[in-house]
Amino acid sequence: MSRASKIALAPDLRDCDERTVRAWIEPMAVTPLGGGCYDVESHDDTYTVDVPGGRCTCPDYYFRGTNCKHRRRVAIEITQGRVPSPGRRRADCDNCGRESFVPETAVIPLCDDCRLDDGDVVVDRESADTLVVRRLTPDRADEYVIEATGTTVAEHPTNDRYPAEDPVVEAVYLGEQLRTDEPRVYAFPYSRLRKAEDAEIVD
Ligand SMILES: [Zn+2]
Ligand SMILES: [Zn+2]
Fold first, then answer.
1. What percent of the chain has a predicted confidence (pLDDT) above 90?
2. Which of 17, 57, 181, 197 qualifies as a FRET site for 191, CA 20 to 30 Å off?
3. Distance CA 84, CA 78 (A)
4. Which domain holds residue 41?
């Protein structure tokens, strides 16, 4: 058994400048606003930090252009996973219920374990067939038209149990993918597919 190596859990504040010390030890409440902005409430006032823009609305930043305590505090809270990083929001996973930070624009909030990605092996909840995800499209099931039938994915008879606003996932049957270089691509509403367990991945 290898022994763990020694690490510090917090920066040595004796070596830090005053603003960093305050960012760590002052009581502050950080509230994500979306779009990479965060409200930081401290004893004196509430200011807004814009992370992508590298700005803060406080006088310290305005007059001195410094990396004020608010910007430092937001960086600390993002690093520690207390608030979502820019482009993400806190949500309960639609599949497993676990709370995590999901992409801000996600139509269906899903944790990293449940989110479907290109190349994932998935199971069709209707047929129990195993498929491989080719592409997660930006189109909704009631917008995406299936070429062969001229109807939308949402209108397809086997999809009436799934939400019309689901994003469409393009996938190929695993068996067909193993047999041919150009397997036919099918379109599914997102929630009709679930990630396959390892034991299910058989041809
Ligand atoms: Zn500030
Ligand atoms: Zn999940």
1. 69
2. 181
3. 6
4. 14-79
